[in-house]
Amino acid sequence: MRKAPAKASKVNIRDYEPIVGRSYIEELRMLADKLSGKTIQNINSTFVGGGVAEILSHLVPLLNQLGIDTRWHIITGETQFFEVTKKFHNALHGKIEHVSDNDFALFLETTEKNLSELEFPGDILFIHDPQPAALISKKKDIGGKWIWRCHIDISHPDSKVWQFLKQYIVNYDAVVFSSPNFVQELPIRQFFAPPSIDPLSDKNKELLPESIDAILAKYGLTRDKPMILQVSRFDRLKDPLGVIQAFELVRKNFACQLVLAGGTASDDPESQEVLEEVRERAGGNPDIHILSMPPESDIDINALQTAATIIMQKSLREGFALTITEALWKAKPVVASAVGGIPLQIRNKFTGLLCHSVEGAAYALRQLLANPDYGHWLGHNGREHVRQHFLITREIKDYLLMILALERNEDIIYL
Amino acid sequence: MVEWLRFNWLSIAVPVLVFFGVFFISLWLRRIVYNALERWLKERRAEIGKIAISVTKNPFLHWLLILGLYIALQVSVLAPQWKSLGGEILASIFIAYFGWILIRLSREFIALCLNKVKAPNQAITATTTITQIVIVVIGVLMLLELWGAPMVPIIIALITAIVVAILILRDVFPGMLFSFQLIQGRQIKSGDFIRLESGDEGYVEEITWRNTQIRTLDGKTIIIPNTKLVKTTVINYGKPVKKATEPFHFSTRLHLKELTGLKASNLSQLVSRLKEVPDAVIYYHTHSFLEEYQFLTPEPANDFALWVEEALGYEILAERLASIDTFEFPTIGALRQRIIGVMQDFLAGVTNEREAPQDNEFHFIKSIDVVLPTPYVAHDLREFIDILRKISINSLYFHIFEAKLRLQRGTNDFSMWLEDCLGEKELAEQIARLDPYNYTLENLRETVFQLCKKKL
After folding, report:
1. Which residues of A touch B406 (CB under 8 A)?
2. Which residues, at least 6 apart from A395, have a Cβ–Cβ distance to it below 8 Å?
3. Which domain holds residue B159?
4. Beta bridge partners of A313
5. How many CB pairs under 8 A join A and B?
6. Judgement on whether residues A47 and A112 belong to the same structural domain of the protein
């Protein structure tokens, strides 16, 4: 068994009061009081890297500060196990993967091993994503309420993998999805809780102007022209070439610069290839800056987002796109494709502009470059929208409410 | 001896007569003055005056004796140097005696005043000691002056000591003075409602020598040192207003979105599902836009109107659905019937139904509400409007929107309480008439606040 290293969180729940309001934190405390004495156990597959680990690293200490004993454990496995779960991940996203019977057998074998090694002190167990999903098979022996927290887009899953997992999922007390579109036909309760960002993390905290300038200088960027930015992995699904096309259409009438910032992943051989394609497509244009950034570049990304004039997310497919949440939190006007969970964050013409094509994206960019006040209004609305719905405090609230909702099967619960 | 008395009887008799004359006149005057003083004090029940009389009544007689002796000495035939010496001795006795009485008086006064405000014993002892030292120093200075001692260096030393003391205690003095003012009840009194610059506010429960205790609206007690109070801006709203027959307990409501698993990809399916889903689903889809974008001036559109326009492209139907005034409906059932009716009317004229694009289906979501009591309780209109500023928008939402439609209370909770428990019928009606769907939640809070404030 592996449990989260005990490290003191630098952030205190009170630090969120100036951001979400004192009354909001008071309400969290009231909710937490109702769950006093319960133990929440989170189980996923890694302490570092990836969105789930990032959310849990903030969520767990904050729940403990609210007085709820919250633990975080991970499952372990050989490399082959994680290769299988990577296939599951892709297949659930709708990608065609060859998953063999041996793969399923290895998955179950590793689950069994973890069941014998893990401790289950939780009264409520949040199991994150498919990797530990089959731990539910010992629910009768372990007891407690089990919630499967699915962070990935399973709107169009590969049938074979989903049917395999479903036989375990139906034994949970509830499942949580990040978008209503991911809902499945299941005999158990399904909740909708979008992911969140931490406004006090390196990626989202406020930076000093001089720090931002220093980071821009590090990448050879200046603020002499409006900056259009897309932050994303170099992945075809993020459509970096479409972004360049839209930029070139806009640049005919507006002096501006484009920054494509992102990383390449060692487990994604395609990303290096895409990066080369993007560089080639940019063709030495001095107004197009392609930045390949290492994984620990949170503050640099923060600085780029803060310095940008407009932020784009022209993805062809998208789960939720926390990069948009980050951009909106920085009160930036956002132009994004109407795919996946993006419309949950961007209500067209209220909190940003949605597009469906390169031309649509270029049109939206022109609107914003010509009307900065409109951009500010959208950015302001976007920030408020994030403040209300996509900060970590809301995710904490949803977790607590879910536990209470599972205890009572009523539409209105009086505490 | 007899011979000497025969020739000098007048020299002895005059001073003796003068002594007794002055003494008896003074005794008569003392009686009149003290009787008048006692009558005056009896009417006012002033504790301080009683102490002053009891402490000074007998010494006053002795001071008259000293006065009589002094005048007698001055009218005697003694040589001037003896008269002067005698006068100085009598004056010295008087100064010492008077000083001693002043010390006794100050000790009694200080104990009386500071005990009233529950000052700690250390403060009483310190104040008494300082006062005694001051009296002794002044007395000694007067004696030295009387006997012709050099005064300049002594006064310089004294002034220096006072300046040093002021410099050391410069931060403490304002607090002490303010404490006195507080104790006298000139600026803030027990029972007043005050708000501090820090945002803390509540009713003053007790003012002591060192601190002021206030009870906040959520029942907490805050103890503020008077030295801190003197440095901050305090708004004093004065005494409480009319009490409500029953207090208003503020609740709050947090909601969770539960996916029903039901979806619709065309209008017929939408109508069909709408007939069977629970009220909690109808409630969610007619209020989610308002809640999600509560910081914007809301379009009072429901999710159905948005979906038929964006996913199906039925603009006319969208307009008809958006124009349904949710505020009109007393129950969710009635609202559901209207929505279904509008859709069915439109469907009757549709020949080829449109299908929503993939991933744009309508997903039916249910609102699960968790209602919690907050610590905020209003006993009168002032408390109510102060709490109105503090509560979360979730609490405001619960008492305005949920109370009327989801809990079917007929009107909002605020109007019910204002009318039933405070007798504020007009104000209750003004708030009940507000269409909350046309305000952002913060604007709604402000509007209700202003209406209540105007009434107050």
Report:
1. 412
2. A55, A59, A193, A195, A196
3. 2-173
4. A336
5. 103
6. yes
Q: What are phi and psi of B2, to 5 degrees?
A: -60, -40
CATH number of residue A77's parent domain:
3.40.50.2000
Is residue A165 located within the same domain as residue A225?
no
Shared domain for B269 and B307, answered yes or no, is yes
Q: Which residue has the higher pLDDT, A50 or A366?
A: A366
Q: Measure the CA–CA gap between A1 and A249, rounded to whole angstroms.
A: 55
Total of domains in chain A: 2
Residues A164 and A33 both lie in one domain: yes
Q: B391: which chain A residues are within 8 Å (Cβ-Cβ)?
A: 23
- Tell me, yes or no, whether A29 and A160 share the same domain: yes
Residues B233 and B262 in one domain: no
Whole-number Å distance between alpha carbons of A191 and B44: 74
**Cβ A227 vs Cβ A250: under 8 Å:** no
B374/A184 CB distance under 8 A? no
- Domain that includes residue A301, residue range: 209-389
Residue A385, chain B, CB below 8 Å: the answer is yes
Question: Which of B361, B367, B390 comes nearest A23 by C-beta?
Answer: B390
B16 C-beta neighbours (distance < 10 Å), count: 11
**Is residue A256 located within the same domain as residue A131?**
no
**A381/B392 Cβ within 8 A:** no
Q: Is A155 at the interface with chain B, CB within 8 A?
A: yes
**C-alpha A101, offset from chain centre:** 31
**Which residues of chain B are at the A interface, by a Cβ-Cβ cutoff of 8 Å?**
252, 254-259, 261, 263, 278-280, 292-296, 359, 361, 363, 365-374, 390-392, 394-395, 406-407
Residues of B in contact with A339 (CB under 8 A): 359
User: Which residues in chain B have Cβ-Cβ distances shorter than 8 Å to A415?
Assistant: 370-373
- Top-ranked range on mean pLDDT: pick from A172-176, B12-16, B116-120, B356-360: A172-176
The model's pLDDT over A186-232, given as tens digits with 9 standing for 90+, comes to 999 999 999 999 999 999 999 999 999 999 999 999 999 999 999 99
Residues A97, A233, single domain; the answer is: no
Is there a single domain that holds both residue A124 and residue A11?
A: yes
A127 and A229 in a single domain? The answer is: no
Please list, in sequence order, all residues whose beta carbon lies within 8 angstroms of the beta carbon of residue B357, skipping any fewer than 6 positions away: B311
Report the 10 Å Cβ neighbour count for B389.
11
Q: CATH number of the domain that B224 lies in? A: 2.30.30.60
Higher pLDDT among residues B216 and B353, named by residue = B353
B257 and B373 part of one domain = yes
C-beta atoms of B254 and A412 within 8 A:
no
Contact: A27, B392; criterion CB under 8 Å: yes
**Total number of domains constituting chain B:** 3
Give the closest of B256, B374, B392 to A405, CB-based.
B256
Contacts of B115 (CB under 8 A, 6+ apart): B124
CB contact (8 A) between residue B254 and residue A24: no
Q: How would you classify the pairing of strands A39-44 and A69-74?
A: parallel
Length of chain A measured in residues: 415
B41 to A117, B50, B109, B111: CA distances (angstroms): 88, 7, 16, 19
Q: For all residues of chain B together, what is the average pLDDT?
A: 86
Task: Count Cβ neighbours within 10 Å for each residue of B29-62 and write b for 16 or more, e otherwise.
Answer: ebeeeeeebeeebeeeeeeeebbbeebbeeebee
Distance, C-alpha B352 to centroid of its chain: 69
A156 vs A93: CA distance, rounded Å: 7
- pLDDT bin (cut points 50, 70, 90) of residue A4 is low
Q: Which residue has the tokens 């158990």?
A: A188
Helix (H, G, I), strand (E, B), or coil: what is residue A197?
strand
Q: Please tell me the predicted confidence (pLDDT) of residue B168.
A: 75
